[in-house]
Amino acid sequence: MPDIISLEAERDRRTGPDAQFRTTDRAGRPMFCFMADFEHDGATFSIRFWAYDFEDAERRVSSMKAGLVVAGQVYSEIPG
Predict the structure, then answer these.
(1) How many separate helices (H) and strands (E) can be counted in the chain?
(2) What would the pLDDT profile of 8-46 be if each residue is shown by its tens digit?
(3) For residue 46, which of 58, 35, 54 has the smallest C-alpha distance?
(4) DSSP state of 42
(5) Vertex 11: Cα angle to 9 and 14 (nearest 5)
């Protein structure tokens, strides 16, 4: 039988998320990538966003619930 890996223990063992899921704000404070899920017409969708920590992520989701609006359609992304 293969060894069972505790994902919680593995996460806690690491010093932080991979580089592509970390950034800094204009003041140099670290920010991290979070995901939020929502359901629509029987399907589950996710959005990615940046926050300072879980508490900040919860506040941002609360703000999204109160005032999220469509800003436009994305056609491409220019790297860099």
Answers:
(1) 2, 3
(2) 777 777 778 888 999 999 999 999 999 999 999 999 999
(3) 35
(4) T
(5) 105
